[in-house]
Amino acid sequence: MQAGGVDTTSLLYIASFAVMIAFMFYGTRFQVYMALNDIGRGLNRLKIMKDKSRKEAIDYLVNVGKAPKDPTERVDQFLDYVTIMPVDIDPQGLVGKIDHVMTTNNDRVRAEVTNLLAPVNQVAVSQTGPVTVTQVNPVTVSISENLLEVASSLNLIHKIVRHYYLLGKKTNSYFTLIQLQMIMPMIIQEADALLNAVDSFKVGQPIGDGIGASIAARFMVGKEKRVVAKDTVMAISEYKGRKLYVLKAEGPMGYVGQPGLAIKKVVDEMGVKPTAIIMIDAALKLEGEKTGEIAEGVGAAIGGIGVEKFEIEEVATKQKVPLYAILVKQSILEAITVMRKEIAEASDKVVQVLNRVIEEKTKEGDDVVIAGIGNTLGVAQ
Amino acid sequence: MMSSVPGTDKKSKLLVYTIEECPVCGQKTKRAFQVGDYITKESAKCTKCGNTTRINLVYAEPAKPPNSR
């Protein structure tokens, strides 16, 4: 086609050729620009989430915990609190060191949160009858701890993403930015799950992760409970001639307890010789798996940093006790937010599986340890 | 280029319920969750046999969408 003596087809050909050459030299810059925009949007969302969780934690401390002083400054200090992991170039005794560091951290956090809140009058049962004691409500303390943990995690996620965003921008590093851009959807999803958890924590609703604890609680109702490790209780029950030592974290506080130490104490100090240790826990499902599906297996069904798992595996190996696991599948969002119907309704099926495992793997007169693992918020015993 | 950052989710609203079960006659009652409810907590009297019920489950389910006819 000719237009005023100029060949338009040739013009278009030259233009597309020019664009191609421009992309050859500046294509990466263009992609960097797009990635920066994309990550910047995600970073803004993370900032909003981080600020919201911080505000929710402060509001809870003020409105529910009746903090006598403005807790804002202490909360901000808490958010930047770091836990330095022990050196691992010499792995000998590493688990004990990690346990020590984590215990120190947990004790310090609880002591600081307790100091932030106002004590209230509570009725406690003593040998002489009901007495009024003035103390900080342990449920409020545990919820505050959980809320601060969420705010701290979101703060850390935001900081790390911001670090790589600014580093990529400063150095114009294409690969740093593209990698960050690729994992951004997963980061946002995880941050979203954490923020959603705040609503459940605030009102003390059981969360999906508490399914193991809620099943253990069924065996403990009406039985005498004793504290066997920090925040961990045990009750003795019976099923078809077997003696059941049932363990869970102490609820309805949002604790996970120390099931590793508790099982160790039951076996080593109380002299119980279990024929089986059965652990019930929530497990992260893979995409495509159904929420509330039950999986059986062997091994120590427990997450976390690995200290509890190590202790359970050690005691089981030393005493040659088989470890059985019953898992309830759920997503990360379902695990840390209010328990979904599908998960709650799986508990009857889990009890059936548990009874079958006890019947198949043990015989009358045997001792069996049952551990309900997970955050026991909203689940007493 | 498509954005890789997911937009704000329009999540379906969840309603939280408390299930009370009578340990004697087994009757189950479903009611809205109230702050202070927890699993194993003793709750209201059973409407069938008058015994004290116990909270058995607390769970959330999506609110049913209004009929769009």
Summarize the structure.
The complex is a heterodimer of chains A (381) and B (69). Chain A is α/β, with parallel strands linked by helices.
Structural class of chain B: mainly beta
Share in helix of chain A: 40-55%
SS strand fraction of chain B: 35-45%
CATH superfamily of the largest domain in chain A: Peptidyl-tRNA hydrolase
State mean pLDDT of chain A (0 to 100 scale).
Answer: 92
Low-confidence stretches of chain B: none
How far apart the termini of chain A lie comes to: 85 Å
CATH T-level fold name of the largest domain in chain A? Rossmann fold
Along the chain, the helix and strand elements of chain B come as: EEEE
The share of residues in extended strands of chain A comes to 15-25%
| SS-based class of chain A | alpha/beta
Distance between the termini of chain B: 39 Å
Cα-based radius of gyration of chain A, to the nearest Å: 27 Å
Number of domains of chain A: 2
Q: Looking at the structure, what is the overall shape of chain A?
A: globular
Task: Describe the model.
The complex is a heterodimer of chains A (381) and B (69). Chain A has 2 domains: 40-202, no CATH class; 208-372, Peptidyl-tRNA hydrolase (Rossmann fold), CATH 3.40.50. Chain A has 11 helices and 11 strands. Chain A has helices at residues 8-63, 72-79, 94-116, 138-171, 174-202, 211-220, 259-269, 307-319, 332-336, 341-344, 346-361, and strands at residues 2-3, 6-7, 120-126, 129-135, 225-229, 232-239, 242-249, 274-284, 294-298, 323-330, 367-372. Chain A has a 7-stranded mixed β-sheet with strand order 5-6-7-11-8-10-9. Chain A is globular, with a radius of gyration of 27 Å. Chain A starts with a strand and ends in a 9-residue tail after the last strand. In chain B, strands 2-1-4-3 form a 4-stranded antiparallel β-sheet, with no helix packed on it. Helix content of chain B is 0%, strand content 41%. Classes of the chains: A alpha/beta (381), B mainly beta (69). Chains A and B meet through helix 1, helix 5, helix 6 and helix 10 of A and strand 4 of B.
